[in-house]
Design brief:
This protein is an alpha+beta fold. It has 16 helices and 5 strands. Helices cover about 35% and strands about 10% of the residues. Strand 4 and strand 5 form a beta hairpin. The termini are far apart.
Length: about 350
Amino acid sequence: MIMKPLSRIKIKTWPLLLLLFFIPAPVPAMEVDDCLGCHGDVEMVGADLLINLEKYDHTAHAQMGCLTCHESVTDAHPDDGVAVTKAACLDCHEEVGAQYLATKHAEYAACKDCHNPHEAQGLAAVSAPQMNQQCGTCHSAESVVQAHQEWLPQADLHISALPCITCHTSSKGYKIVLNITQKQQQRVFGDYVFPSYADLSTVAGGKSIRSLIDINNDNLISLAELRTFNRNPKYQDLRLEGTLVPSMLSHDLSTLESRYDCTFCHASGPKSLQTSFVALPLPGGNYEQIAVEKGPVLEALYGTPDFYMSGSTRNASLNIMGLLIICAGLVMPIGHGTLRFLTRKNRQHKGE
């Protein structure tokens, strides 16, 4: 290729070259990493604008990018002094918003009061206690137990074991979610807590924690695998705790009449209670759910098909009568056995 000497470039092209020389070079568009580079550092943006990178990275919002909700951010932010706009939640969540705005809660709490958009997770990615954290902001556990114990037997046990939305939404479909819990160490009768990913990785000996229960690694936990895990002496400090969780998310917080019926939950066999998942923690603190073979999981875990041990009822008088009947039934065999034990020597002499 033959290059033209500089002196031979046409005179009329010089103004164009000078103009290009003084035009500033284009600045690369603001990327997510640019945003998080500052907003992931508390010293740069302060606590109010800080984003927890680990939690944010696992949200659906992270996949959309920062500028989807903050359109006014320019490449010169924050030096340009332009105020940062925020998208309204209802721009995307119109159906959910319509459900919520029809509830009494909407008078007291907006979306952001319950959901941090930089940490919001889907229903399948959080544990039952995490689901209740938003409710606990306004409703203390003590007040909730006190309000329920007027009609609900063992209210404290129910409140601690169930997500609030299991009863207080209009969702009709439910699934059983089984979480692995771990006994607190150094306590013979220690409480069971939700272990972290690191805790279960230690139990798994460096292998995938899924291998603890999904033995053949086919991404489906059979009832036999569930039973094997539950009875394995190696995992004596672990146990499975199940809870009912709505299969579909709803912000209609009305309570259906069926939730006052004990047999809605405490029955074995209905098809609606044979869809189950095991929730396992992930490194970021959220959860993944693995499907369980359809069937009665309680039967697989405890070997008591079609059996449910009843406890107290909603009627205090009936509870006392039931306790007296049980005590009366125990008096005869225990009393008879005790008398025979105390008189065993007398019977030996008669035999001689």
